[in-house]
Amino acid sequence: MKKTSQILLKKAQRLYHGVFPKKLIVPDEHRKMLTKIYPTVNWKKVRLFKGMPWFMGGGFATGITLPGDYSLNKIEVFLDYYIAYAPEDVAILVHEGYHVLQYEEMYKNKGIGFFRPFLVHYLAGFFKGFFQEIKKRSLAQARNQAYRYHPMEIPAYDHEALTLKYIKEVGVDKFVEDPPLHLVVNNTGYRYNSGMIAYFFAGAFLLLCTLFKPIIELFYLLFALILFLPGKLLQLIGL
Predict the structure, then answer these.
(1) Given 46, 110, 178, 181, which residue has the most CB atoms within 10 angstroms?
(2) Are 15 and 224 in contact (CB under 8 A)?
(3) Is the dihedral of CA 19, 20, 22, 26 positive or negative?
């Protein structure tokens, strides 16, 4: 049976890492692989994290690429897990790398909080698809269709599929060492066409996120501290 101190400290740690996630350690050759596949990206601005953000808990995604909340141009990639030499995991990393390239193409990811060009266009595309699908599907089905057939997701999934196919042909080591030319992407060629209504909803939602997310995360950290202090005290006295 776990001690009370262990329970409190574990909960405090979970809250803390919900705001400040653990860094994902990937082999250097995997980072070099990304620079070969996406040579126009400034990979010094990209940080990798283990686990999903707190607001993605219970979601279906195993990876997501987001702007760095507390920086003006950093990009953060979150992966639920990463086994360095599992073909599927390497392919997912390449998928998220495609989104990093999309971020870079859109005004170099300039902005504040979640209010960035990529997320405005991404959410507008999602809302457009969702509004179309909700007329003929359930809420969950409309959401899934809007995500899977999003014009910014289709090429990323296609690239992931091509990557996985090639990895299964030659093996992870060969792919990481020397990605083929047909998988190198310099630009995505994405064109924005989601409509004013979708852009309005996307902009309003992201503005609210930019304003309220830091406040919510402050409460997360306060609750973490409230749990951490008695947890450490109980740990010191052996409870």
Answers:
(1) 46
(2) yes
(3) positive
Spatial separation of the C-alpha atoms in residues 169 and 149, rounded to whole Å: 27
CA neighbor of 78 nearest in space, from 109, 56, 111, 104: 56
pLDDT computed for residue 59 by the predictor? 66
Q: Where are the beta strands (DSSP E) in the chain?
A: 22-23, 46-50, 63-67, 75-79
Question: What tokens appear for 127 in the block?
Answer: 């809302």
User: Which residue in the block uniquely carries the two structure tokens 């170099």?
Assistant: 108
Helix (H, G, I), strand (E, B) or coil at 184: coil
- Alpha carbon distance 96, 34 (integer Å): 10
Separation of alpha carbons 39 and 33, rounded Å: 10
Give the separation between CA 226 and CA 220, rounded to whole angstroms.
10
Closest CA to 188 of 65, 111, 97: 97
Rounded CA-CA distance 1/220 in Å is: 27
Contacts of 3 (CB under 8 A, 6+ apart): 234, 235, 238, 239
Q: Report the C-alpha gap between 5 and 29 in whole angstroms.
A: 40
Q: Which residue shows structure tokens 């630009």?
A: 187
Q: Which residues, 6+ apart, have CB-to-CB distance to 63 below 8 Å?
A: 77, 78, 79, 80, 92, 93, 95, 96
pLDDT digits (tens, 9 = 90+) for 144-196: 888 989 999 999 999 999 999 999 999 999 999 999 999 999 998 877 788 89
Q: Which residue has the higher pLDDT, 132 or 238?
A: 132
Q: Is 143 left (phi over 0), alpha (psi -120 to 50) or beta?
A: alpha
Cα torsion angle, 216, 120, 152, 130, sign? positive
